[in-house]
Amino acid sequence: xxxxxxxxxxxxxxxxxxxxxxxxxxxxxxxxxxxxxxxxxxxxxxxxxxxxxxxxxxxxxxxxxxxxxxxxxxxxxxxxxxxxxxxxxxxxxxxxxxxxxxxxxxxxxxxxxxxxxxxxxxxxxxxxxxxxxxxxxxxxxxxxxxxxxxxxxxxxxxxxxxxxxxxxxxxxxxxxxxxxxxxxxxxxxxxxxxxxxxxxxxxxxxxxxxxxxxxxxxxxxxxxxxxxxxxxxxxxxxxxxxxxxxxxxxxxxxxxxxxxxxxxxxxxxxxxxxxxxxxxxxxxxxxxxxxxxxxxxxxxxxxxxxxxxxxxxxxxxxxxxxxxxxxxxxxxxxxxxxxxxxxxxxxxxxxxxxxxxxxxxxxxxxxxxxxxxxxxxxxxxxxxxxxxxxxxxxxxxxxxxxxxxxxxx
Amino acid sequence: xxxxxxxxxxxxxxxxxxxxxxxxxxxxxxxxxxxxxxxxxxxxxxxxxxxxxxxxxxxxxxxxxxxxxxxxxxxxxxxxxxxxxxxxxxxxxxxxxxxxxxxxxxxxxxxxxxxxxxxxxxxxxxxxxxxxxxxxxxxxxxxxxxxxxxxxxxxxxxxxxxxxxxxxxxxxxxxxxxxxxxxxxxxxxxxxxxxxxxxxxxxxxxxxxxxxxxxxxxx
Lengths: 409, 219
What we know:
The structure holds 2 protein chains of 2 kinds.
Chain A: H1 12-19, H2 21-31, E1 38-43, H3 50-64, E2 68-73, H4 78-91, H5 100-116, E3 123-127, E4 144-148, H6 158-168, E5 173-176, E6 189-191, H7 208-217, E7 225-230, H8 239-250, E8 255-262, H9 268-281, E9 287-292, H10 297-306, E10 309-312, H11 321-328, E11 333-336, H12 341-344, E12 352-354, H13 357-369, H14 371-388, H15 391-408
Chain B: E1 8-24, H1 27-36, H2 39-52, H3 63-70, H4 75-82, H5 92-109, H6 111-114, E2 122-138, H7 141-149, H8 153-167, H9 173-180, H10 185-192, H11 201-218
Antiparallel strand pairs in B: 1-2
């Protein structure tokens, strides 16, 4: 049986205050032909991670539109999750030597879950590689199966992808976060952006007093320029490169740098990266390296709102939703042109893209010397997020997908 | 009050973006892509993108122009591509032909630039359209005004921008109905003259409502 999931319920009408009543009315119009029809979302974790976070918001909103939607979580033992974690990294391009045993474990858990999950909804949406094998016993043409891939498949490990591709090719369509992540497949592939919730603690409006308190807690001076990157301590987020860019900017502008991310205590690689970051920071009192407890959404929100410029200098990126979070707060963003970032940052329109430490520093200097351009980019970035990267837009995209699939049949 | 025999029916639209199999890493490859991509792809990168980026009113016109600017650094080509006004086209074939002409002439004039690698590849995508009736219609100018006030961006885009292809006329749904349904030809023309490149969908709607109010005061 599926797990009972505690969902965050925010009525659709609350979004109308932010987006306009007509947007919500039109969601209802699009959903009308889908009323009472069944949808099953399946992923591999009920808590933690972006997929669970999105489903937690999306499912109740779809229910409010009178769609018969349920969210089931696939069950697996430690051995299964060890294998799928390796698959995940391998699909991102990390070196990996898969053994036949790994594939056996994957197949065994797929079979076990097929016996317990209903899989009988009109639309079955499978999230990420872990539950991909559930399609194995799908009766031909019985219902619609959708594979939603949240990871970057642009340079996958060949062995792992060849194994998964056999399953993916049997779906009715696949959804990717960027065209770059898609593969040559015999099924239609659609662009589906991840989304942020404007009413969540990470993105909702904050009392300026709370923002001041957070800055005070970390000894950040609100009167001086603040450059901020929010991301876990991971080499792919290039925190050391951010410090180097800050040092170049510092030659021209008095500024502080905030590098904030989740605690690295339970992540050996994160702890190592944190050490490298502290070494690079070299006790500079204007560099604040903050390990936030379990991401502390309200604090992240406050730090983003207090920033003069937000940086996302990733070397590789899935989608990089922290960019959308900053844009939603009307912040000027300087980010690397990798992964899904160029979808969010339309260069010179909704932010500035860079390709190196020097380029990042230059774009930050440009924004600091032209605050009117920084303001405009922030405003336009906010509009871009409002039109494309909010949870309500994601719901709209799903409705459109289901209507398209139903029309096709 | 003048009432139309055939009511104006308000509709909303929603798009899925289908990822195509073609991409381009140089201007020469962009030309090949333009020659061979589907009509839905040309629509997506011109008409649809104008709607989804309506809030950018300073220099954003279509995806091809934006890519030429930001990823190949060819400002002059970007300007020429941006200058193609979708209001001048009632068929995708004609728009495709002009896009190919502009890129083709540029590649011929600057063969070195034609083969230069872009910073990021251009991915050809397609729009898949789903429409839904909003259950509202208008027979009079007042009802029409009210309906427009309550349209979302998508609904407004559908009637004001993408309608040109559907109608196969150099006009939009609103102007078409104002002229044919209510016989307000001059108002219809003024509405059609609202610039969709220098206005956001919100400011275009505000202008449209001002024009309707002005017409209402005449009556």
